[in-house]
Design a protein that fits this description.
The structure holds two protein chains of two kinds. By secondary structure, chain A is α+β, with helices and mostly antiparallel strands. Chain A contains eleven helices and 14 strands. Classes of the chains: A alpha+beta, B alpha+beta. The structure holds flavin-adenine dinucleotide.
Chain lengths: 261, 792
């Protein structure tokens, strides 16, 4: 690993002031540190944001659950409040990676990184989340731009993620057997008006499957999407799963999620 | 005194390991040490046009940069294959040179071309990035099945063929097949695996200019053998000037048998720069450069009568050696494979033909089971298929062809001294509730799931091995083992063994054996291994040989101690040596109440005289001291056997295979410590099930390793397994005094076919290759649905 400067920011302002084109925020470090070790990324400055108190913690109101960006996966999975308000969100957190990763990785880091097979982005889409940054509020639908790409500007810091509490929801993932990231993960959430079917792992970026959302908004039963033949042309193919298999898994996991709601 | 052999003695090594006090090679730091980083080929096949180290040499902290040229100039030898195999036509196998640093050609991604030695690790890395190697990239050969049609990798080795070996009689097999009612045939792939020891390889080399001695600390399963090879073939230093220490080693599974490039280079370079050098592999280097395992492509046939008697067996295999033939590289797909390919069955005629090929991939060598997993997979998949095609119950068909009389002269090589295969099968069936399976299948079906059951009966030849036998088959060394038992004057015992423990619990089990033999409390016995300066010699640990060979050497050395003790006691107590008996640590003059404890006798041996109360003159012809050595050469291999039964449930919508039940009923002969054996069985099963369902090393057509990290190489985890149901039958080996067999590899040998037979059973007989990943199984489920629909 190449040498770098370590900074510990005391508040959001300082963190974003320190940021430059050759810096990264250091949250859990679960992505940043391995990529630096492998020489895939080099930074001049790492700006530790874990000591910014405001960034950690979980707040639940009647309508939403707000999670600080530097909150660790283990804290979300263990939170009684989250379990009560949105049980599927706590079980999603419980299914990320392994205990070591959950003990350090953060929700903000996961979302900022926007790995095409990460779990949290699907929760954001399914639960109509609002991303609060030090500068503005961003709707999830506008936040996830593409593979490892988000609406964040240089130096912009995610402070919290506010999830809308649905009537019912479930997240079902078919994990990559090696990494346990999602080969396909489907987050189904039934809100008052409509149903979201957020899919991760299948394409280059998380998305809301309109066809299934529509079918389920009409009739919230797995039978309404059974046998659906999804277009696989934009789906990922790698050594773990072909596009065709992924297309089938999207429907299967969505059905499982509906049944589990 | 109660016997310790057979009891669940807690592991002596646990305290050290569980409190973080193990001392591994990477924990060793020497004064003034430097750090090595190897510059490795990014190409699978290329010739080296030029290496420019100018920029790198100027990088900060660089002490030395050495390449293949310097190593050739110093006449340092290359890595070698330990067994000479002859082809069917009588010609010798063809092995390319394998210099520790490639000079002219590189042959796999990771092949080292230079070493950068610097004051710190960071500086070594930085400088290594500045070494400029100009390669001419050549077309790589990566496929096992097509290797013989690829470009010639090594000059003069036609068709990339190391040897074309035959074991058995083609003519007899042809006659048997002519008489058959039915021929069952199968095409299988034994997938390539990466051993993934928890501790990556490492070495620290030191040179003492005063004594002109090199000391190499390294992650080895066999330090003496490493020293021998480095000295005799590597020309690094004469044996008496080379000390090899393998301290705590965190798992080997065969991957640490070999002497590796880094061992030789660091030892040689440490002398050159007159400073200690440390190298620790990164995990990515382990993936690329540790030896890999398996990688066979096989076509096999079984000739049967319509009522299920086996008549003949053919096995045509292509085995991938990788880029170079290493220590056990050539014997693994031949003598460790061929003789076991007929399994636990009486098959009157059989042959195994193996074409061993070179490819531009990491060297393939012995990995847990080495040859026997491949053999067992072949025959057990074939037998399972025969049971489906003949419509005979899979357990009945096996029993029908089991030998019932022992010693059993197996078709190709071995004479199996002992066993009771029928008893093993019956017990396994009971443990697994084989009878209740159909009901469980129906329950699964009611949930929309497919359930399958798979059986494997295996035997394996381990405890390697009688020196005369293996040397006649081409082995470059004898495979005996040595032990030295030293009594201290005050009664504690130090046992030096040539076996090496890297997870096998020798500190405990060997101490149990010595405690029983000598009647000394186990706390007073220390087992010492892993240092060529301590103990006599050793061939090391692999092939489940530690107990059946190394353990017996300890027994024999202890027996010599007891013999001397009897003579000394007789002299002390003025009796006839023939009248002295030894029991539970006491020498007793029969028909008298006169006795001496072994502690008193040991003390006497160090104080051989008469003074006041002390009367301990030694008998004539005996020297003072109490220390005995044994070199034990076994009279036969040992032959563990057993039956394993697996049950899987498949979700046809996702292709997910859930291993529901796993039953292992093994015959390991006498068991020294049941807890340790369970650990060995569990570990072996995890690796065997890993091969069947998860693990796979994959190269692309250019020779890049696609599964070079845990993000893509699926190491099984605890939650992939059910609680294992483990049981034993026991027939004592008749060829060694303890009656022991070997248990280290059984799980890895039996589990792959057991699990795959279950998967394929659930899929209505459709073949899938290992590992049975979700997508492959999902596709098979779709086919099954289609063919069921057609049938209906
Ligand atoms: C072995 C392993 C297995 C994993 N398995 C899974 C899995 O199954 N599912 C899954 O979803 N994930 C998985 N992950 C990812 C993990 O969950 C982390 O969420 C992820 O690595 C990023 O979080 P982090 O806190 O570690 O971020 P860091 O590595 O510290 O940062 C990552 C990036 O995000 C930026 N960043 C961090 N915080 C903020 C912020 N508040 N505002 C703006 N930018 C920010 C950083 O600048 C950096 O570019 C796995 C990781 C590993 C190592």
């Amino acid at each position: 690993m190449k040498d770098f400067n370590y900074h510990s920011a005391k508040d959001s302002k300082e963190a974003s002031k320190l940021a430059s084109s050759s810096s990264a925020f250091l949250a859990g470090g679960m992505t940043t540190i391995p990529s630096m070790k492998l020489g895939l990324a080099t930074y001049k400055d790492l700006i530790d944001i874990k000591n910014i108190k405001k960034l950690s913690g979980i707040k639940v109101s009647g309508k939403s659950v707000t999670i600080g960006a530097a909150t660790k996966h283990v804290e979300v999975s263990n939170s009684k409040d989250v379990k009560k308000a949105i049980p599927s969100l706590s079980s999603l957190a419980e299914g990320i990676g392994d205990p070591q990763v959950r003990n350090r990785g953060t929700i903000g880091g996961s979302i900022a990184n926007n790995d095409p097979s990460a779990d949290y982005p699907s929760a954001c889409i399914a639960l109509n989340a609002t991303i609060h940054t030090n500068e503005r509020k961003i709707e999830s639908a506008k936040f996830f731009k593409g593979m490892f790409e988000t609406a964040l500007k240089k130096g912009e810091l995610i402070e919290a993620i506010e999830f809308q509490i649905p009537e019912k929801s479930s997240y079902q993932k078919h994990p990559n057997p090696a990494s346990r990231y999602a080969i396909v993960g489907v987050y189904v959430a039934k809100h008052k008006g409509d149903v979201n079917v957020a899919v991760t792992g299948a394409k280059s970026c998380v998305y809301n499957d309109k066809e299934m959302s529509k079918a389920l908004s009409g009739n919230f039963s797995s039978s309404s999407i059974d046998g659906m033949d999804l277009d696989s042309s934009e789906m990922n193919t790698d050594m773990h799963a072909s596009a065709e298999f992924r297309a089938s898994l999207v429907v299967t996991q969505a059905k499982k999620a509906v049944d589990a709601c | 005194m109660a016997s310790l052999v057979g009891s669940r003695v807690e592991r002596k090594e646990d305290k050290r390991f569980l409190t973080g006090k193990g001392r591994y090679t990477a924990d060793i730091n020497l004064a003034n040490q430097t750090y090595a980083i190897f510059v490795r080929s990014p190409h699978a096949r290329a010739s080296i046009k030029k290496i420019n180290i100018d920029k790198a040499s100027k990088s900060s902290g660089v002490v030395s940069i050495l390449t293949g040229k310097e190593i050739a100039d110093d006449k340092i030898g290359g890595l070698i294959a330990g067994w000479a195999i002859r082809s069917e036509d009588g010609t010798e196998m063809k092995c390319p040179g394998n210099p520790p640093l490639a000079k002219d050609n590189v042959n796999f991604v990771g092949d080292p071309v230079a070493v950068v030695i610097a004051e710190s690790l960071a500086e070594a890395k930085e400088a290594a990035e500045k070494v400029e190697v100009d390669y001419k990239v050549l077309k790589a050969v990566t496929s096992t099945a097509d290797a013989m049609n690829g470009d010639t990798i090594h000059e003069g080795i036609d068709k990339n063929l190391c040897f074309d070996w035959l074991l058995g009689d083609r003519q007899k097999v042809k006659e048997a097949f002519d008489k058959a009612d039915k021929v069952i045939s199968i095409d299988i792939v034994n997938n390539r695996l990466i051993p993934n020891a928890m501790e990556p390889r490492a070495c620290v080399a030191d040179y003492n200019a005063a004594s002109e001695e090199i000391t190499l600390y390294t992650t080895s399963q066999n330090p003496h053998l490493s020293r021998l090879i480095m000295s005799a073939f590597g020309n690094v230093a004469p044996e008496h000037k080379l000390r090899v220490v393998a301290p705590d080693v965190g798992g080997g599974f065969g991957s640490k048998i070999n002497v590796y490039n880094e061992d030789i280079v660091c030892s040689w370079a440490a002398k050159k720069i007159n400073r200690a050098i440390k190298w620790v592999a990164e995990r990515s280097e382990s993936f690329l450069t540790d030896i890999h395992g398996r990688d066979h492509v096989t076509h096999a046939e079984l000739a049967v009568t319509k009522d299920g008697k086996f008549l003949g067996f053919k096995n045509e295999t292509i085995a991938n050696l990788g880029a170079y033939a290493r220590v056990f590289g050539t014997v693994t797909p031949t003598y460790l494979f061929g003789p076991c390919a007929t399994g636990v069955y009486e098959i009157p005629a059989a042959y195994t033909n193996v074409k061993a090929v070179y490819t531009n991939t990491a060297p393939v060598d012995a990995y847990r089971g080495a040859g026997r997993p491949e053999a067992t997979y072949t025959i057990e998949r074939l037998v399972e298929k025969a049971s489906m095609e003949l419509g005979i119950d899979k357990t009945e068909l096996r029993i029908k062809n089991f030998p019932t009389v022992f010693p059993f002269k197996q078709t190709l090589v071995h004479t199996v001294d002992s066993g009771d295969y029928v008893a093993g099968m019956e017990k396994a069936k009971q443990m697994a509730d084989y009878k209740g399976f159909e009901a469980r299948r129906k329950e699964s079906e009611a949930k929309g799931k497919l359930r399958g059951i798979g059986v494997t009966s295996y035997f394996e030849a381990c405890g390697i091995a009688p020196s005369a036998a293996v040397m006649s088959l081409g082995c470059g060394v004898g495979l005996w083992e040595s032990a030295e038992v030293r009594f201290n004057p005050t009664g504690q015992v130090t046992v030096y063994t040539g076996s090496h423990s890297h997870g096998q619990s020798h500190q405990t089990t060997f101490a149990q054996i010595a405690a029983d033999e000598l009647g000394v409390p186990i706390e007073n016995i220390d087992i010492v291994h892993g240092d060529t300066d301590k103990g006599t010699f050793g061939m090391g640990t692999y092939g489940s040989r530690s107990l059946a060979v190394g353990g017996i050497a300890i027994v024999n050395a202890c027996k010599k101690i007891v013999e001397k003790g009897k003579r000394v006691t007789a002299k002390m107590l003025e009796a006839n040596p023939e009248d002295v008996e030894f029991k539970d640590g006491e020498f007793i003059v029969s028909k008298s109440n006169k006795k001496k404890t072994i502690g008193e006798v040991a003390f006497a041996c160090y104080l051989p005289g008469v003074r006041d109360e002390m009367k301990s003159p030694l008998p004539e012809g005996d020297e003072p001291g109490l220390k005995e050595t044994s070199f034990y050469d076994p009279s036969n291999f040992s032959f563990p056997a057993g039956t394993h039964i697996a049950e899987v449930e498949i979700d046809p919508e996702t292709g997910h295979v859930k291993l529901q039940k796993y039953t292992a009923c093994d015959d390991f002969g006498r068991i020294i410590n049941p807890m340790v054996v369970e650990g060995q069985v569990h570990g072996g099963l995890a690796q065997g099930i890993g091969q069947a369902l998860y693990e796979n090393a994959e190269y692309d057509e250019t020779g890049q390793l696609m599964t070079g990290s845990y993000m893509d190489y699926t190491m099984p985890r605890a939650d992939n397994f059910p609680e294992f149901n483990i049981g034993y039958t026991c027939t004592h080996a008749t060829t060694n005094p303890l009656g022991v067999k070997g248990c280290g590899e059984a799980g890895a040998i039996a589990a792959p076919p057991t699990v795959m037979n279950a998967v394929i059973d659930a899929l209505g007989g459709q073949e899938v290759t290992m590992p049975a990943t979700a997508e492959k199984v999902w596709k098979a489920c779709k086919n099954l649905k289609k063919s069921n629909a057609k049938a209906a």
